[in-house]
From TrEMBL:
<feature type="domain" description="LysM">
    <location>
        <begin position="63"/>
        <end position="112"/>
    </location>
</feature>
<dbReference type="InterPro" id="IPR036779">
    <property type="entry name" value="LysM_dom_sf"/>
</dbReference>
<dbReference type="Pfam" id="PF01476">
    <property type="entry name" value="LysM"/>
</dbReference>
<protein>
    <submittedName>
        <fullName>LysM peptidoglycan-binding domain-containing protein</fullName>
    </submittedName>
</protein>
<dbReference type="InterPro" id="IPR018392">
    <property type="entry name" value="LysM"/>
</dbReference>
Amino acid sequence: MSTLSLAPVFTPAPARPRSTVRLTRRGRLVVFVTSLLLVLAVAFALAGGAVGTDSAGEPIPTEIVQVTPGDTLWGIASDIAADGDVRSVMTEIERLNALETTGLQAGQKLRVPVVSD
């Protein structure tokens, strides 16, 4: 007796047509640089709206105070603070004078906000 075996028939998939566009190394670089420039142009266009106002702001009226021996920033701010909020006046003095610490030296000149009563 003989045995008959059936093998599945192999049908190759139809060949896809090859694209006629092939990018070389230089072509990929050109596409990358162009895309990068496009992204940067969009970023600059969107960031153009983040500008200041057209009118100048009102400068804060200030006066110069010379630090004497024993003066502290808290003491100077408490003399100036009209509403009793010493911490906000201290912060304002630090900002006006670009102070990194609250330590003061005798003879140092500080710009402080003018007391408005």
